[in-house]
# Entry
Amino acid sequence: MCLALLAQAQEHTISLDKSKQAALVYSEAIKNGKLDIASAETDVKAAKSAYLPSVSLTGVGVYGFKDLIGPMPPMLEQGINNFYFAGASATQPVYVGGKIRTTNQLAALRLEVNKIRAKQSVDSVLLVTEQKYWNLVNIQEQHKTLLANEKLLDGILKQQNDLLASGLIARNDQLKVKVQRSKLLLNKSKLENGKKLALLDFCVYIGIPYDSLLVMQDILVTSSFPALVATVPDTSLAKNDSYRLLQKSLEAEKLQTRLTRSDLLPTVSIGANVAQIGSVNSGLGSSFMPVAMGTISVPISDWWGQGKQDLKKRVISEQKAQHNFEVAQNQLKVGITKAWYDLTDARKEIQFAKENLEQAKENLKVSQDNYASGLIEIPELMDAQTSYQEASSAHVNAYANFQLKVAVYQYFTGNLDGTIKINH
# Structure
C-alpha cells in the first residue's frame, strides 16, 4: 500500500484547461498576433494624422567672408556679408476626393483583420492542444487495456504451467500462450515509447518542462454513450473567423476601388505662410508677413487616360473578389458539414465498438469455458483473446476519436470556448 501511495505521489497530473492556458501563454504565433495588432494600431494613428494641418518651419542663414553685396551709398552705407530667411507654413486639405476618409477606413479595417487573425491563432493553439491532450489520454487508456489483457494472459499461462506440470497438455500449447504474451509485451513497449514521444511533443508545444511522470487528468468515460446537443450542422458561419476574414477582404476591395476613384476627383486645400528676411548688423530686415493661399487641382486628363483605365481594373478586381467570396463561403459550409458528419460517424463508431466489445467479451468467456471443458484447443482460446484485445483497443480509440472530432467541429464553428457541449 505504501508503494502504491508513493507511486501516486510521484505522478503529476495536468488538466485540459491548464494545458490550454499554458499553451496560450507560450505560443509564439499568439505573441506575433499581438505585435501585428500593435503595428496596425500605429497605422490607424498615422492615418488619422492626415486630418490635421501639415506644418513646417524653414530657416536659412548665409555668411560670406567677403561682402555678398558691396556698399552702395547713400542707400547702402556698408556692404552685406550675411543673409537670413525664416518662415513657417501650414497647409490644410479641404477636399481630396474622399481619399483621407477612405485611407482611415482601410487602416481601421487592417486593424480588425489583424485582430481576427490573432483570434485564429488562439483557436488554432486551442485545437492543437486538445488534439495532443486527448491523444495522450487515449494512450493512457490503451495502456490500461494492455495491462488488463496481460493479466488475463498471465492467468492462462499459469493454468498452462500447472497443466504441463501435471502432464495434461503438451509443451507446444504452453509455447503458444507465451508467444501471445510476448506479442502483447512488445505492443506494450511500443505504446510506452510512443507515450514518451507524445508527452515530449505535448510539453514542448505548451511550453512546460518535460516530465516523464506527467499524467493527463481526464479519462475516457467508456461506460456511457455520448449524445449530441444538436441534430444538424451549424452552417450559419456566425462565429467562423475565416468567413469574417472573407468579409473584410471584400470590404478592402471596395475601399481600394473608392481610393482609386478619388484620384479622378479634384483636390482643394488652403494654407498660410509667414516669412521674414534680413541681414544681421546691417540694418536691413523685414517683419513676419502673413500670406494666405488656396489651391485646387483637377486631374482632367485622367478622366480619359491612365486613371480611367486603372479604375476599370479596380472594378474588375472587386467583381472577382465578390465571386471568390461566394465560392469560399460555400466551401466553408461544406467544411463545417463534413466536420459534423465526421462527428456523427465517430459517434456511430462508438456504438459499433461497444457491440463488438460485448461480443468479443462473451466469445472469450465461452471460449474459456469450452477450453476448460476440453471442447476447444488453445489456438481457439488465443484467437478469442486476440479478438477481445483488439475490440478493447478499438473501443477506447472510438471514444478518443470522438473527442477529437468534437474539437474539430467546435473549431470550425467558432465554439472552442465551450459553447457546444457533449453530454455523457
Observations:
- The two ends are 33 Å apart (CA to CA).
- Confidence is low (pLDDT under 50) at residues 1-9, 418-424.
- The first strand starts at residue 12 and ends at 14.
